[in-house]
Amino acid sequence: MTTAATPFAPPSATPRTKTAARPGLFRRLFTRVRSEDGTASMEFVLVIPILLTIFMASFESGLLMVRSILLEQSVDMTMRNLRLGHYPGVDADELKSEICSRTIIFANCEANIMIEMTRVSTLTFAMPATRISCVNREEEVQPVLTLQIGQQNDVMLMRVCIIQDLIFPTTGIGLGLPKDAGGGLGMVTETAFVTEPI
């Protein structure tokens, strides 16, 4: 007994559901996390703030060192001329002008500098107990400091303070430095000399 062959009918394709057509949320997140696209950009974003901080701190510290060296050099050169008697009848304004003329790196130098000169006793050699006052840029009237012009063989102590603004006051090394109300840093130098006899 033969049976009639029935034509082969493929199984009916069942339509996929919407959830089966798309990968699950977890699978998509896992794929995205394992993806290495943008790796270089991520490293750049993480490293560039550190590099910028190092650069700004290096630039600020270098500028402070140059300012300090130039201030000490200009004060020493001015004091050399003073003790040799090259400034007869000198006053504070002339000393400020002479110090500021020997450096070009200080902004508005003569308005931001204060000079104090006191005679030191050769019996006790006691130095001034108070710190030198710096310019208060928020006040129009500045305190008058002592400016004693020494006689022959007097030991003189000169203190100079100049206020300068930082380049990066809120970043790097500038963030930890003591500043005045206007954000300026007081740079102080001291020198002592003996007035030469004429």
Map the helices and strands:
Layout: H1 18-21, H2 25-34, H3 39-83, H4 92-101, H5 109-112, E1 113-120, E2 155-165, H6 173-176, E3 184-194
Antiparallel strand pairs: 1-2, 2-3
3D structure, described in words:
The chain has 198 residues and is an alpha+beta fold. It has one domain. Helices cover 39% and strands 15% of the residues. The chain contains six helices and three strands. A three-stranded antiparallel β-sheet has the order 1-2-3. Helix 3 crosses helix 4. The protein is rod-shaped and about 95 Å long. The N and C termini lie far apart (149 Å). The model has no long low-confidence stretch (mean pLDDT 77).
What is the average per-residue confidence, as pLDDT, rounded to a whole number?
77
Q: Rg from C-alpha positions?
A: 37 Å
Helix content: 25-40%
Query: Helix- and strand-based class?
Result: alpha+beta
N- to C-terminal distance:
149 Å
β-strand percent reads 15-25%
Q: So how many helices?
A: 6
> Can you list the strand order of the major beta sheet?
1-2-3
Quaternary structure classification: single chain
H and E string: HHHHHEEHE
Number of domains: 1
Report the principal-axis shape: rod-shaped
Number of strands: 3
Largest sheet: 3 strands, antiparallel
Unreliable sequence segments: none
